[in-house]
Amino acid sequence: MDERAALAMITDQIDEAGDDAAIVDGTAITIDMLHDSADFPAGVTDRTMGWRSVAVSLSDLAAVGADPVGAVAAYGAPTFSEGALTAFVTGAREVCDAVGTEYVGGDLDCHDERTIATAAVGRVDHRVGRAGATPGDAVCVTGCLGTGAAAFKLFETGKIERANQLYRFSPRIAAGRALAPVATAMMDSSDGLARSLHQIAAASDCGITIEGDLPIDPALREFADTDRLATTFGEDFELIVTLPEDAIDDARARVPVDLTRIGTVTESGVTRDGDPLPDEGYVHDPD
Amino acid sequence: MDERAALAMITDQIDEAGDDAAIVDGTAITIDMLHDSADFPAGVTDRTMGWRSVAVSLSDLAAVGADPVGAVAAYGAPTFSEGALTAFVTGAREVCDAVGTEYVGGDLDCHDERTIATAAVGRVDHRVGRAGATPGDAVCVTGCLGTGAAAFKLFETGKIERANQLYRFSPRIAAGRALAPVATAMMDSSDGLARSLHQIAAASDCGITIEGDLPIDPALREFADTDRLATTFGEDFELIVTLPEDAIDDARARVPVDLTRIGTVTESGVTRDGDPLPDEGYVHDPD
Fold it and tell me: How far is CA A281 from its chain centroid?
């Protein structure tokens, strides 16, 4: 069974699963696992690793509209160096500071492959998941797509400093909080835009059509196959949100980043400019 | 730098670190990482793995006196089978049910070595950590020691069913909640009794003396070196607690498991029956 089929099976078994974070009694909880061979290309600094690992969990909180309470990490590695751990903690703290929460520690584990697990906890006033999109709603995205793909390409081509900058993305906590009261469905774009749209459509039992140009990170424009990378690569952490058309202007005024309308919720089918948009993610190997 | 030195360094850097769970705004958060080569001897079932992984994080909540809100897990493995995942979720749910909380899902990750990260979240009314032990306090332990060592020995000797039973330990949530209002210091015994006592003594800037027989799991008695295993092996998840002497009777009445007095908090030095008790844990390899 592949990872997607396995996730689908677990989502069926656990009522609270299926959104970016589970919510119990108004508390949002999420956990993620990253490791060298899949998630950290050569050139990622320890500070970036701390930032990004924690940011991935904070992005899950953003996607359910949560106000973060704190984040923790478990750091598994064959050896521990003071410099690496201090840099990791620095990055973890910086991203928590950036969204107004606290990095409060975690655990260490001797592990053959460097493996980082992170968890974040938040409070939720307006619960939003993937299941409420309604035909006629607008589909919007925060910021721009393709940042994760650009970072991977920059690591590949040795532009390490710029790649690290892009890899230290800003979790869209403030945007998630501002959107939650009006959003009908929301998730982050970590699996890529195409797969995210299919997941919202499946959870909400609706369709989605997107049209026109997408907001694409300028950093990606120097590479080939830009549109495909921006649509399917993933490793982006923007919010994909559906909301009533008449709520867009007000949402835009309250969201502190660009909010671009990319499409409309329909009755069925996920399409782009009239053609079916395949439910595919890019298979990427950072080595 | 070894794991202990690295943990000490991180504890110095992060105010909230140092206790079994971090506490922010009345919310306790903990994360743990377990993996095949260190934590799951041959013979551990998938159900036991789910139970124990989540139980380790719930034990951290117990140790700070928290009331659990929910628990999550990230499951990394080279392949996913429906049977294994279903059994894992069953075990994770059972231990949550056993302590009155909910298993609310998590994440999957393709990983060369099976690696489980768990996080648990709770609410704290009476904050208790490792730093408040005061000379004259009694030192008590819940349940009995050596259960983890007995399980490891039983796995080694092929008594798999009994070993799995012992491995599915009961996190001392109810005991932790009952003890928190009177405890001056508390932690779980996952690093072994000896190391736990040293950690409380160091955090509280005091000494501890223990005297007489320890409550030892009858399952361990069939093996050699019982006392040493019960004292230093770890992989036990009882609570080690210090509390004023005149609070013991009342605590005993409210704690739903045995609460055995094993010693007294002193000014300095960690001793057993008058001799120094080394700050040592057993190095164990489950393979």
Answer: 14
CA distance B151 to B155: 6
Quote the tokens at residue A4: 């997607």
- pLDDT-derived band at B286 (thresholds 50, 70, 90) equals very low
For A152, B126, B164, B165, B214, the CA distances from B176, given in Å and listed in that order, are: 47, 10, 24, 22, 20
Residue A192 Rama label (left phi>0; alpha psi -120 to 50; beta): left
Q: Beta A270-272 vs A207-210: how paired, if at all?
A: parallel
Closest CA to A102 of A53, A63, A30, A54: A54
Is residue A192 within 8 Å of A247, Cβ to Cβ? no
Rounded CA gap, B149 and B163, in Å?
A: 10
Across the interface, whether the CB atoms of A107 and B72 are under 8 A apart is answered no
The answer to whether the beta carbons of residues A1 and B82 sit under 8 Å apart is yes
**Domains of chain B by residue range:** 3-123, 138-276
pLDDT digits (tens, 9 = 90+) for B162-198: 999 999 999 999 999 999 999 999 999 999 999 999 9
Closest B-chain CA to A4: B108
Residue B287 pLDDT? 41
State the pLDDT at residue B7. Answer: 83
Q: Are B195 and B280 in contact (CB under 8 A)?
A: yes
List chain B residues with CB under 8 Å of A29: 69-72, 104, 119, 121
- Round to whole Å and give the CA distance between A71 and A238: 19
ipTM rounded to 2 decimals:
0.94
Q: Does domain B3-123 have CATH number 3.30.1330.10?
A: yes
Predicted confidence at residue B127, as pLDDT, reads: 87
Q: A138-276, what's its fold?
A: Phosphoribosyl-aminoimidazole Synthetase; Chain A, domain 2 (3.90.650)
Residue B138 to residue A30: CA distance in whole angstroms: 39
Contact (CB<8Å) A69/B27: yes
Could you say which residues of chain A have pLDDT below 50?
285-287
Measure CA of the first residue to CA of the last residue in chain A; give whole Å: 24
Distance separating alpha carbons of residues A262 and A138, to the nearest angstrom = 8
Q: How far apart are CA B58 and CA B199, in angstroms?
A: 20
For B220-230, how does the pLDDT look when each residue is reduced to its tens digit (9 = 90+)?
999 999 999 99
Compare CB distances from A6 to B17, B18, B80 and report the shortest one's residue: B80
C-beta of residue A267 within 8 angstroms of C-beta of residue A280: no
Best A16, A31, A82 member to test B by mutation, with max B CBs in 10 Å, is A31
Pick among B7, B20, B23, B24 to test the A interface (most A CBs inside 10 A): B24
DSSP β-bridge partners for residue A17: A19
- All residues of chain A having their beta carbon less than 8 Å from the beta carbon of residue B32 are 74, 107
